[in-house]
Amino acid sequence: MSLEDKCGTAFRNKDHEEAVRLLPLVKEVKEPNEIKIAGDGLLHLSSYNGWLDVTKDLIAKYHCDPHERDGVDRTCLHWAAEGNHVDVMRYLIDECHCDPMAVNKWGWIPLHYAAEDNHVDVMRYLIDECHCDPMAVDSRGWTPLHYAAGGNQVDVMRYLIDECHCDPMAVSGTGGTPLHVATSCGSSAAVGYLLSTGKCDPLAKDNEGRTPFKLAKERGHTDTLSVLKKFGDIKSSHPIDSYVNVLLVGNPGAEMLEG
C-alpha cells in the first residue's frame, strides 16, 4: 500500500494518531490537498471525524481549501454537521468564513444533515448562532423537519416545533407533510410525536391523493399502523378530535384515509 493510501485509510478509519503521523510524510510524495479517498478529500474526512487540530493543519499548513466541494457538492461544513462536531463547524465558519447555508447538489444545507441524524447541538448552533433558516427547503421541497420525521428523530422534531415554531404541516414539492414522510419511512416514534402535538392533520392528502395512513399501509409498516390506530383509540373519546376517529381500523370512515 502506498503512503498516500495508508494516509487515506487512516482518515477513513478515524485513526487520529496514524493520520497525524503520516501527514508530514505523505507531503514529501504528494500534496495532502490532492489526495482523494473515493472522491472525498482529507479535509472533508477530518471535518467529519471531528479532528479540529488536523482540520486546522490541513488548511493552514497544507493549504487545503476549506470551501472545496466533494463529488456531490458537499462542503466541509456538511461533513462536520453530519459528524456532529460543533467545534469544527465554529472554526470553519468563524475563521474560514464558510457559508452555513451552502447547498449540495440536492439542495441540502448542513442543517438537513443535522436534522436527519438527530444532532440537536448542531441544530441549535446553526439556528441560534448562525441564523440559518429552520424551514429551509431542499430541491424536493423538504424542510429539516421532513428529514427528522423520516429519520425518526424525535429530539430534533421537538426542538424544531416547540422552540423554532416550525410548521409541522409544511408540504414538500409532492405535497407531503412530515407525517407523510414519517409514515412512509415507518418512523413510528415520529408518527406518535407528530400526532401528539395536535398540529398535524392525519387526513391530509399529498399531490397523489394519499393520506399518511395509506402510505403506511402500502409499505407494510405494521408498527406505524399500530401507532395510528392507538392514537385513534385514545382520541376517539374526545368530540373535539372526532375527525381522527377514522384512524380506527374497522371504522366505517377509514376509507377516507385510504383515498
UniProtKB/TrEMBL annotation:
Gene3D superfamilies referenced in this protein's UniProt entry, alphabetically: Ankyrin repeat-containing domain
The entry's keywords: ANK repeat, Repeat
ANK repeats: 106-128, 140-162, 174-198
InterPro entries tied to this protein: Ank_repeat_dom-contain_49, Ankyrin_rpt, Ankyrin_rpt-contain_sf
One protein family per Pfam: Ank_2
PANTHER family: CYCLIN-DEPENDENT KINASE INHIBITOR 2C-RELATED, POLY [ADP-RIBOSE] POLYMERASE TANKYRASE
Protein name per Swiss-Prot or TrEMBL: Uncharacterized protein
Taxonomic source organism: Amphimedon queenslandica
